[in-house]
Write a structure and sequence with these properties.
about 100 residues, alpha+beta, two-stranded antiparallel sheet, 3 helices
């Protein structure tokens, strides 16, 4: 799989539900039946902002994630992309094919 591109637009997969929890959130993919735990509130904020921002970097910045922390968050977002919790968005705002 190619490296996760923070400069591309991303969004939650349409079959993913987010359930906020005191520790962060649970993400459940109804298609794959996979469960992911987000143990960081700022990561949850960034994931929620993906659909409204032009890039993953912009979503992270809006969530209060600084430049020095982007490498760690890039890794977390890459893991979510690998498990199909988030998907690349096309120019019309939907899932890229």
């Amino acid at each position: 799989m190619p490296a996760f591109d923070m400069d591309r637009p991303w969004t939650l997969h349409p079959q993913v539900a987010v359930r906020p929890e005191p520790f962060g959130a649970l993400l459940y993919h109804f298609g794959t039946r996979r469960l992911s735990f987000l143990k960081d509130r700022r990561l949850l904020d960034a994931v929620r902002l993906l659909a409204d921002r032009p890039s993953a970097t912009a979503a992270c910045t809006a969530a209060g994630i600084g430049d020095g922390e982007l490498t760690r968050y890039r890794g977390a977002l890459a893991t979510l992309a690998t498990s199909h919790m988030i998907v690349e968005r096309n120019s019309q705002g939907g899932e890229a094919t």
